[in-house]
Amino acid sequence: MPSGTAPGRTAVTVSLDQLRRCHIAVDLGAARTRVYVKGVGLVVDEPSVAAVNIRSGALIAVGALAEKMTGRTPEYIRVVRPISGGTVVDIEMAQRMIRHLLGEKLRRQLRRKPRLRAAACTPHLSDPLAQRASVETLVGLGARRVELVDTLIAAAVGCGLPVEQPTATMIVVSGAATTQLAVLSLGSIVTAERIPVGGNAIDNAVIQHLRTQHELLLPSQSVRPLQLALHGNGLHSHGPESTEIHGRDVATGLARSVQVDTAAVRNAIHTPLTSVIDGIGKVLRDCPPDLVADLADRGITMVGGSALLPGFDQMLRDATGMPVRIADRPDVCAVLGLGAMLEGNVKPLAFDPLTEVEE
Ligand SMILES: Nc1ncnc2c1ncn2[C@@H]1O[C@H](COP(=O)(O)OP(=O)(O)OP(=O)(O)O)[C@@H](O)[C@H]1O
Ligand SMILES: [Mg+2]
């Protein structure tokens, strides 16, 4: 960080020069791992999941295939998620997983670079231990130097927000583990919040609802189909009034199906999301009035996989009265933003000192 940058603030200019010298950009998410290679593009976008044989320690599958195995393995195969809550919790497993996701050809290509430099997204206000874990993961993969960029900045660049201008923009990054939101101006974060609610909390809300209201255990893989069974309506109220769900009876353990009231499921999904609205309120209260006025025009940009939850944008629109738009390809905005910085497509923030006129 250049001297003069206020602590706690991350500027786009932090190390644009350094970033331009990086070869790969990595976003280690709780749900998905994404890798961008300079000059090539997005090469990996796979679930952050690995399946291991616990008898031999051998890796059996990674990515989408390993995710499919969740809940379907014999006891000697364990499906693990080395990244949890936006932090690498098992560095060695994360490295093995990423090596396999990259594949032999790319791995050889990167090994040929004698001084491999990597850039990685780090969640806003992540603690030093979490940052250290990301750095160590990439160092173990051969990186000599790792640049960390705040996810909020990377995502804002990735969705084309005019971050470097003296006008306020608000971004909401809703992933699997967390929702991060910020008001940005002049390439810096003015105010920000990180809320531990994302796609996982939504899935849990649905699971809990069925368990308490219908005494039904849902197989882990059918939560997503269940949300889709709300006929892609998510939080919208149109669509069927009820839908049939198959699961296992909590008491007897036998397979059973129930008719579930979709309005009740919608309510259950709505509950965790109210903390996102509270977060937006807090960020706006902490924000200087001039910037809030800009926001009334420019509105909120949503990114992250959970931004795709139907009706989430409308919920924010209703709660704030501001325009809300979902970015193009919201799930990969952060890594594409890092990629743009690697390729040198991001204009540096140049504040040339004005020549002072002598009287
Ligand atoms: N069409 C969709 N509708 C609803 N939710 C979706 C949709 N597509 C993806 N999601 C949710 O988005 C989440 C994944 O988003 P994303 O890829 O941004 O997470 P991540 O970057 O891995 O997580 P984090 O940033 O929290 O570490 C998952 O929880 C998934 O359920
Ligand atoms: Mg993410």
UniProtKB/TrEMBL annotation:
Pfam families: MreB_Mbl. GO terms for biological process: cell morphogenesis; regulation of cell shape. Gene3D superfamilies: 3.30.420.40. InterPro entries: ATPase_NBD, MreB, MreB_MamK-like. The keyword Nucleotide-binding applies. Its main location: cytoplasm. Keywords: ATP-binding, Cell shape, Cytoplasm, Nucleotide-binding. HAMAP family: MreB. PANTHER family: CELL SHAPE-DETERMINING PROTEIN MREB (PTHR42749:SF1). Forms polymers. This is Cell shape-determining protein MreB. It comes from Streptomyces clavuligerus.
